[in-house]
Structures are given as C-alpha cells and as structure tokens.
Design goal:
Blueprint lengths: L1 H5 L4 H19 L2 H8 L1 H13 L4 H20 L4 H22 L7 H35 L2
Helix pairs in contact: 2-5, 4-5, 5-6, 5-7, 6-7
Length: about 150
C-alpha cells in the first residue's frame, strides 16, 4: 500500500507517505505495549487525555487522528486522486484494517471503529479542502494587489 501511495511522487512526498503508512500500520496492528513503546508515554498519555474529554476510547481517538492525518496527507500529496478516489482508498483502509484486526489475537474488530475511521478521513479531507480554498483566495488577493 505504501509503495502505491508514494509511486511517482517527489522524494520528500514519497518519504512522508511511506513513513506515515508504516507508522499507521504499526499503530493499528501491533500489540498495545509495543504501540506505547513506539510512540512514547507522552503521546499515548495525550491520546488518553483527549479520550477522557470525548465520548470515545483512546483507541478511537487514535483511529480518528490517524485517518484524519492520512486523508490530509493524501489530499496534499496526491492531487491526482482528490476527493472520490481518496475517500475510496480511505474507506477500503477503514474496513480492511478492522477486518485484519479481527484476525489478530491481540486486537479486536469493532464496527464503531470503522465509523470513527471514516469520520477522521472526512475531517482530514475537509481540512485539506479548506486549506486549498484559503490558498486560492490568498493567491487571488495577491494578484489583485499586483504582488
């Protein structure tokens, strides 16, 4: 998956997509203790603090943030895919990641996690779209001033 995401991209974009894909996979599929070791107590603690303020578990907060980040990166670094294709890729990732988690002894699959994954993906696409609109407005304003 990470090779397909990075294929044909500039080197920095390819590295960002591959690293994100690998970290994303580690977070979704490694046992909890290894995830804590990989990401550190500070980041894991922050996720638990966010979960305490939301009606979600820490795992669901992590799913939301991960899918939002992945969607935003795909929006920014894969303009050839844009909304429908990016959403299609993210829907497949949301569903198949839960199916694979259901096959692992140390993970469980939950339909609610698929929903949180899709909410995160939608949030990332909205952020990417808003960023694009702001950049376009800024460029128009600069052209209007003659900069």
């Amino acid at each position: 998956m990470s090779v397909w995401l990075a294929w044909g991209r500039r080197p920095l974009a390819a590295v960002a997509l591959v690293l994100t894909s690998l970290v994303f996979s580690a977070a979704l599929f490694l046992p909890g203790g290894q995830v804590r070791s990989l990401f550190g107590a500070t980041l894991v603690g922050l996720v638990y603090q966010l979960a305490a303020a939301l009606p979600w578990s820490a795992g669901q907060v992590a799913h939301f943030v991960g899918f939002a980040w992945m969607a935003l990166l795909l929006w920014l670094l894969r303009p050839d895919l844009r909304v429908l294709r990016v959403m299609g890729v993210l829907v497949l990732l949301a569903v198949f990641s839960e199916l694979v988690q259901g096959l692992l002894d140390w993970r469980e699959a939950h339909l609610a996690d698929v929903q949180v994954n899709l909410l995160g993906a939608a949030a990332g696409l909205v952020l990417g779209g808003l960023g694009t609109l702001l950049a376009m407005a800024w460029r128009r304003a600069r052209r209007g001033r003659g900069d």
